[in-house]
Amino acid sequence: MLRYLTAGESHGPSLTAILDGIPAGLAIDTGYIDLQLGRRQGGYGRGGRMGIEHDFVEITSGVRGGMTTGAPVTLVVNNKDWDNWCDVMASGPNADLESQQVTRPRPGHADLTGAIKYGHLDMRNVLERSSARETAARVAAGSVARQLLEELGIELIGNVVQIGSVKAMTQDLNAKDLERAVLNSSVYCADPEASQAMINEIKQAKDVGDTVGGVFEIKVFGLPAGLGSYSQRDRTLDGRLAGALMSIQAIKGVEVGAGFAAAAIRGSQLHDEIFYDFNSGFYRQTNNAGGIEGGMSNGAPLVLRAAMKPIPTLSRPLYTVDLKNKMPVSAAVERSDTCAVPAASVVGEAVVAWELAVTLLEKFGGDTMREIKERVAAYRQYEKSI
């Protein structure tokens, strides 16, 4: 079974991820993980924290000589800002619990509900863990899963398709061209004209102390058919992927394929007709299903979209109520971004990569990459021969 846990606070000493079930013999490139961590910190619209942190991963277990051993893999991402917070966030009894107290909950954040749930009077205990800074650990973990998938010929590419009111034109590109187009955009959007309009949208929001959300799309190329299952509903691939994407901070909606637009399309126009080629097997000329039918991958490219709300931390804060005296006040202000949709697309890639690795190992099993590669290769031949 493939699983992981993350730990750490936004201003604590580090973020940690422990990965269990990673097969032996997987080549791990820390430079690749660092590249994904850097992408998570990038994108036009990020705030001051990104000028402080420059994330790198440290592997403290489970990898020797650049190869996984089959033991749990521990990934550590150090917080450079810890030097400025070591007294406030200290774990010992001498911690400074007064100077950085948060008692004014921010609307849209976990602050108030988390304080009620865990009985905290200082909501710093909530925001330090609920912060999207935690996603650095998830990107590190997902980058390991991504390296596993890439060894099996599976590629993931995130693409921002909307920021605020600006929507990109649909880009029907192959994997390499899509990746190249995204890399050339400071907002990770494959449509050059829309990219510039998105930058202007972010600038306008920043000028008035506001924030903007948007939508990102994840495409996955090279998936074999049959990942997931229809036999039990908690094993459906779309259900699991939707849950993974919804777990990202500020994500409020997920679509697969045609998504919500499918509700307005008649079945005769929506469903993807099936064809057969004696060399390559079954295929579809359209992909409104987004690569998933009946809770299983169908061999077509996987297409997922996630909607991100505007970040709730505002430089012109909304009204709230002080937890100490119940008086009306302006909400607390922490360092924040004007727009983090590009960064969220990188986190989306990571959580999707992890979930796909889980379902792939469930289907093919194996404790070593050699076994897994052999089984996936044999299955791909089987797919073509049906």
Automatic annotation (TrEMBL):
Stretches that traverse the bilayer: none
Q: MF terms per GO, please? A: chorismate synthase activity; FMN binding
How does the cofactor bind to this protein, according to its record? Reduced FMN (FMNH(2)).
Q: Which InterPro entries match?
A: Chorismate_synth, Chorismate_synth_AroC_sf, Chorismate_synthase_CS
Q: Which domain of life is it from?
A: Bacteria
For the ligand (FMN), the binding residues are 129-131, 249-250, 294, 309-313, 335
Q: Where does NADP(+) bind?
A: 40, 46
Per the record's keyword annotation, is Flavoprotein included, yes or no?
yes
Name the needed cofactors. Answer: FMNH2
UniProt lists the family membership as follows:
Belongs to the chorismate synthase family.
Its biological purpose is as follows:
This reaction introduces a second double bond into the aromatic ring system.
Q: How does it assemble?
A: Homotetramer.
Q: Which NCBIfam families match?
A: aroC (TIGR00033), PRK05382.1 (NF003793)
Supply the name of the protein: Chorismate synthase
